């Protein structure tokens, strides 16, 4: 019996271990902000179509490196005098015409395909950075709402404790009914604030969950990026890649000034009369299209206009990003200054609150002064917690402006 019991315990442990081994790590530990960004990015249409887009770019690179710039053309024909004499004159021919690369056009087409492939990757990174901005803002909004809910809940608990103390002293004849009413009003007001803060937290968490698919807020906080600042943010890198694409297209349009020439190789089988034998011959032809302004000028001018627009957009984006970085750094400095002031304010309010609480319990302070002290203490505590969270959000905004993902 003891042996069977030991075997059962061993089997139960094996089952538990097997179950735990199949539990996803995302459920075993709280998510990070990076997990949230990755989850939000995975839901985006751009991310879902990225693999197919890369296959498209690979196909374009393959086409640019192909043996022919276009598919070969097969043509067949027949000549007969059956309807105008019928002497047995017959001719049949079959030809395959192969387009040929003009000098410089193949390498130009390859550079366009490679530039477009690089642009796809850069735009993907820029789009992910855009999603990261939305996730960061939603995350900090939820954190601020959760913080306010927590503090209003604590305030409501403190107000309820104070009301019970006032009620006890009112029943003992130590306080007037007006004081008891004030305490009840303060308790109801605290509960209303708590309910409002709870609703705001629920809304903010649901917005974050809809964006990321996560029901739990990350617990990690970003650190300020202090690495190499010469790395271009992905939105600038994407526009730089777009400029390279338009330059490659302009070069390709300038090199590709005519339709590709075609080299034709055909077989001709013919006879001149019924009594004659069929004769076979091989025919080689070369078709060289001519370059005309009506074909080339619109393509070249359009490519040049697109290049000018891309370069202008890049210059504007560089200025915008630089302004965002400077503004984010100023906001961070201000947030840290506000945090320092809020810390001092909280220390003063904490000391005053303790003194007023003791004085009220000893009967040396009236209830209105005690309630004012309670409100001042709550406001100071709320301001300090907000200031600390705002510093974290300001750090996220600096990282975002620098183009750094969590």
Residues in helices, as a percent range: 55-70%
Summarize the helix and strand pattern as letters. Answer: HHHHHEEHHHEEHH
Low confidence ranges: 1-27
CATH-defined architecture of one domain: Up-down Bundle
Number of helices: 10
Strands ordered across the widest β-sheet: 1-2-3-4
Using only C-alpha atoms, the radius of gyration works out to 39 Å
What general outline do the C-alpha atoms trace? rod-shaped
Explain how this protein is built.
This protein has a domain at 36-316: Outer membrane efflux proteins (OEP), CATH 1.20.1600. The chain is 70% helix and 9% strand. It is built from 10 helices and 4 strands, in the order αααααββαααββαα. The protein has a 4-stranded antiparallel sheet with strand order 1-2-3-4, with no helix packed on it. Helix 5 (50-64) packs antiparallel against helix 6, helix 6 packs antiparallel against helix 7 (177-212) and helix 6 (105-171) packs antiparallel against helix 8. The protein starts with a helix and ends with a helix. 24% of the residues are buried.
Q: What layout of secondary structure does this protein have?
A:
Blueprint: H1 2-21, H2 25-28, H3 33-42, H4 45-48, H5 50-64, E1 73-80, E2 90-99, H6 105-171, H7 177-212, H8 234-255, E3 262-271, E4 279-287, H9 293-361, H10 367-402
Antiparallel strand pairs: 1-2, 2-3, 3-4
Helix pairs in contact: 3-6, 5-6, 6-7, 6-8, 6-10, 8-9, 9-10
């Amino acid at each position: 019996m003891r042996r069977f019991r030991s075997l059962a315990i061993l089997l139960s442990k094996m089952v538990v271990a097997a179950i735990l081994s199949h539990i996803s790590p995302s459920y075993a530990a709280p998510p990070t902000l990076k997990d949230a960004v990755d989850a939000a990015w995975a839901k985006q249409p751009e991310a879902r179509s990225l693999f197919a887009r890369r296959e498209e770019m690979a196909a374009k690179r393959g086409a640019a490196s192909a043996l022919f710039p276009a598919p070969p053309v097969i043509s067949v024909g027949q000549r007969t005098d059956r309807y105008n004499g019928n002497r047995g004159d017959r001719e049949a021919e079959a030809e395959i015409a192969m387009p040929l690369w003009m000098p410089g056009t193949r390498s130009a087409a390859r550079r366009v395909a490679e530039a477009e492939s690089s642009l796809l990757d850069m735009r993907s990174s820029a789009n992910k950075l855009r999603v990261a901005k939305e996730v960061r803002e939603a995350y900090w909004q939820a954190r601020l709402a959760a913080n306010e809910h927590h503090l209003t809940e604590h305030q409501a608990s403190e107000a309820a404790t104070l009301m019970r103390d006032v009620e006890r002293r009112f029943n003992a004849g130590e306080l007037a009914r007006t004081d008891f009413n004030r305490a009840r009003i303060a308790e109801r007001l605290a509960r209303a604030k708590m309910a409002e803060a709870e609703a705001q937290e629920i809304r903010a968490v649901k917005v974050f969950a809809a964006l990321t698919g996560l029901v739990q807020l990350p617990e990690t906080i970003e650190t300020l990026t202090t690495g190499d600042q010469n790395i271009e943010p992905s939105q600038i890198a994407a526009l730089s890649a777009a400029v390279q694409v338009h330059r490659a297209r302009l070069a390709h349009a300038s090199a590709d000034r005519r339709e590709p020439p075609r080299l034709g190789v055909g077989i001709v089988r013919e006879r001149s009369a019924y009594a004659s034998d069929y004769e076979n011959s091989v025919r080689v032809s070369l078709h060289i299209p001519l370059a005309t302004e009506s074909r080339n000028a619109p393509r070249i001018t359009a490519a040049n206009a697109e290049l000018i627009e891309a370069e202008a957009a890049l210059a504007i984006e560089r200025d915008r990003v630089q302004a965002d970085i400077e503004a984010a750094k100023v906001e961070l400095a201000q947030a840290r200054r506000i945090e320092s002031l809020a810390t001092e304010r909280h220390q003063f309010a904490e000391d005053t609150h303790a003194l007023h609480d003791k004085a009220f319990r000893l009967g040396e302070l009236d209830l209105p002064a005690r309630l004012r002290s309670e409100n001042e203490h709550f406001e100071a505590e709320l301001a300090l917690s907000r200031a600390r969270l705002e510093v974290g959000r300001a750090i996220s905004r600096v990282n975002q402006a620098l183009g750094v993902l969590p």
